[in-house]
Here is the input.
Amino acid sequence: MSDALLPSTRINLERATVLVLDDNGPSLDILSQVVSGFGVKQLFRAESVADAQTLVRTKTFDLIISDVQMPTTDGIEFIQWLRREGGESNRYIPVILVTGHTRTSQIFKVRDAGANFMVAKPITPKVLLERIFWVAREDRAFIECDTYVGPDRRFKHEGPPPGTDGRRKDDLPAEVGEAQTPNMSDDEIANLMRPAKVQI
Amino acid sequence: MKVRKFRPTNRLTAMIKERGGIMAKDAIAAAEAGVESLRESSMAALDEALAEIERRFGKDAPERASELYESLYVLGSRIIDVSAFVSDAGIDKAAVSLCTLVDSCEGSGNWRWDAIDVHIDALRLLRAHGALLPADQREAMLQGLYQVSNYRPDEA
Here is the structure.
C-alpha cells in the first residue's frame, strides 16, 4: 500500500463496522452519507454519547467517527470512556474526532482525549477518506497510563524537548556528545558510497 | 507512574487492503453524490440556525443580554456543520470566526455586542450574496471578521 491515498488506490471497507456519533441531525446525516459512500455496509448512528455507549457495549467496531461538541457528555469524555471502559474489543480501535471549532479551554483536552486524528468540519469526502486511510495504515504505539490512554501523541519521534533527558528508556538527548572515535577520512567516506559489483 | 506501551491489532489495516473494494476516486464520487442528496435539507438547517441567531441575538432581540454564551456557540457550530455546500460563499469561515468570538466572550464573561452584530450582518450578507462577491471582496470581509474576533486561521 502506498503512503498517500491516490485516486487509483483501492480501498475495501465493506466488512468494516463503523459508528458515527453527532448530536446535530443534519450533520449526522452528512457524516453517514459520506461513510456509506465509501462502501461501509455496517454503519451505526448515535445522536448522543449515551446511545453510543450502549452500542459500544453490545457490538465490535472497527472505526469510530465522533463529533466533539455535544450537550451533557461531549466527544472528549466519550473517547476517554471508550479507551478505559469500552471493553477489550473496542478500546483500541481508531477514533477520528470531527469538529467545526475547538474552544480555547478544550485544546489540551482534545489532545489528551485519546483520539487518532482530528478532522475539521465542514466535512468533505476527500479529506475524511484520506484520514480513514491514514488511521488504517498507521503503526503508532498505544500508551496506557494513569493520565492518558490512547495512541502515542509523540508520533513524529523528534526526541524529548531540548535541555531535558526525556522520560522513556529509548529517549536520546538532543545535544550531540563528544566524538568517541577519530573522524573518518575522505577516502573512507568515499568508499561507503562507492558503487560496487555484487553477485546476484 | 507505570506506563504500558504496546501495539494493539488494528483490524482496519487488514480490512482496507482486502481484495475487491473500490478505487478511492469512486468512493469519493459516491460519497459526494450521497451528500448532494442532502443539499436541500442542509440549507434549510443552515437558514434555520441563522434565523434563530438573528431572533435571539440580533440587535432587536430584547433579551439577548440574558442569553447563554453556549446557545450562540451551538448555533454557530450548526452553521459550520452543514456549510460545505456553501463554502464558496465563505459562510463556514464566518461561522468559525463567530464561534471564536463567542468563546472569547465566554472566557472574559462579557458580550461584545458590536462584534456579534458585525458577524450576524456578515453571515446574512454571505448567505445572500457571498458566492457572487468578487473573491478579493469576500476575503477582505472575512479578514475584517477575523480582526474583530481575533481568529487566526493559520493557527486553527
About this structure: The mean pLDDT of chain B is 94. The first strand of chain B starts at residue 4 and ends at 6. The radius of gyration of chain B is 20 Å.
